[in-house]
Amino acid sequence: MTARWLKLLLVVTISSLSAAGSETANLFKGHDGPIYIESTLSYSATGGDHLLARARNDSGRPIQHFEICIGNGHGCLFKLWNTAIWKPDAVLNWDLDSVVHSKDLTQFVKLTSLRVEKGAPAPKQKIASSRPSFMQSLAIGLAAATANQPVPSAAQVQEASVALLLFGGEGHKVFLGCLNCSKFDANSVLNQFGQHGSQYATESVFNRYGEFGSAYSTYSACSQYATDPPVIVDQAGRYYGRMTVNRYNDPTRLGYYAAWIAGVCQR
Fold this sequence. Notes:
Layout: H1 3-18, E1 20-29, E2 32-43, E3 49-57, E4 63-72, E5 75-81, E6 91-97, E7 108-116, H2 126-146, H3 154-160, E8 164-168, E9 174-178, E10 231-234, E11 239-242, H4 255-265
Antiparallel strand pairs: 1-2, 2-3, 3-6, 4-5, 4-7, 8-9, 8-10, 10-11
């Protein structure tokens, strides 16, 4: 094979590999969910759109019916649904082709319909069942801060694999999420579809118009003048300072999170 053909083959191969758009998401409908989904759009051998998708029922309940739209700015390209009761933790897979050839493979994923099985027990909520221990940890942590007890380093936190928890509001009674949990955890601040990672949720530091993400609220992590910003604790009762851009109000000594919240508040 000549160098010219090798070059042409390389260009075609690279183009084929790059012509794909992937997306991962946790989908909710009201208080029901999440459904975790991974999807990849590419072009099929016949020139149409091709979809590979995988979804897992993370809602903790059997799902009678759901519909997911995978599309672009012109509407749905593919619609996904179940044909039988979808049990918790079960996985569904799709490998679909379309005659449509989209100009680009930028995609959105939307849960358009969700119906859980009637009479199904409510999923176990980790936060609700653990809230008393969180609050006990908070009280111990604040006492430790008052007594100027040593604060664990970031390396110690990582080595111990402890969950770092954020509390705010009056008396620090509002749970604002887990800082170092997986982004797929419903309680993670990194879960953009969850109540602590969404820019629209009331209990989120990402909500620039809310009590905890505003530039003006006294309880906000993003206010340079906040007098009572959120606190960081773990379940062992250790206190890690405050999640705040106010450098005069005991900001966290965990450098990564100090830089992280500064980035969040600049958005």
